Amino acid sequence: MTISNNVQKRMAEGSWVRKMFEEASILRQRFGDENVFDLSIGNPVMEPPIEFNQELMRLVENPIPGMHRYMENAGYPETRATVAEQLSLETGISFDKSDIVMTCGAAGALNVVLKTILNKGDEVIVFAPYFMEYDNYIDNHGGITRVLPTDEQFLPKLDALESAITAWTKAVIINSPNNPSGVVYSEGLIHQLGELLRKKEAHYGTQIFLISDEAYRKIIYDGLKYPPVFGHYLQSIVITSHSKDLALPGERIGYIAVHPDCSQREELISGLIFCNRVLGYVNAPALMQRLVRNLQHVSVSVAQYQKKRDFLYNNLIEMGYSVTKPQGAFYIFPKCPLKDDLAFTTELRQWNVLTVPGRGFGLPGYFRVSYCVDDRTLEGSLVGFKKVAQKFNLCAG
Ligand SMILES: Cc1ncc(COP(=O)(O)O)c(C=O)c1O
Fold first, then answer.
1. What's the pTM value of the predicted model, to 2 decimals?
2. Is 361 in the pocket of ligand 1 (CB under 6 A)?
């Protein structure tokens, strides 16, 4: 066989998000763009903020000599310094540029972190529902994924975590605002999480990292404030990107931030920089580093996403779907009226509405709707949602 058994197995398991996204392309060819309602992938329909184009123009008009050359593997010092400054403002903790490594998006950041910290057989805990690429990334670096349940609000169950942590637990990954549920973890929950991890570290005499995936940190609704993990746990590593907050997923730009008081900080950061290099990323894209440097305080219109969230949530509730109201990100994760989530998403597909079964996030029985789409697509999808709700007796009319 040409490709490895493991790659073959993982490809066969596939990504449900990608499967549905590809399905949408086929349907578009058959029925035309305007008749297909693709709510499968988190590919923001919004354009980057105007400030992004202004920075781009400024750079084109004032090119910097050597701006396309190799650089330090951690990224440009001046970009890392502005990221550190912004993080210091947001967290009240003093970050230095040496705490930051610029990466190829959040996906690149996760791979760099996992390669740096994992020995073969180390365990990494995640909470379902979760972004299923975690599983592939953990496997990339010899780790074993331990999936834990959440409560009815999709929040981690701390008693389950307490019993799941072993001497082999190297990291716990959290993701808030969450893909796919949209929940935002409270400061109280993060604090308890930190306390529990400290207790377990002391018990086993190990180091357990809290990896906080904050790809959606700036997309939060209803005036809620984001509680930074850094204030609650020293062994924390934040990974994030500008794929969602600046609508730049194709440009592959993000970063890793390590708690300035993390133990063995220097060794950890040297490891991260080494892994950024040897994973073949070498460094994050030079042009993007120049551009996002001055955009740390900028984001796409959160109000527009909130409007879409309200529109979809209110309509789904009215149709009789059982839904937890998302507090951030741009996904909603309703319960399926059918036990079989794949069968349910197939019902929606009959109406050219593409969503992703909950099994694609480690939690069957639900389905994910991505609402980072234009209003026409969102409005058009309601017919299918309604027809299927009627078929399964969720609503009367
Ligand atoms: C929770 C989560 N983490 C990480 C990523 C990867 O983001 P990036 O495009 O920055 O690699 C995504 C992408 O959808 C995501 O939803």
1. 0.96
2. no
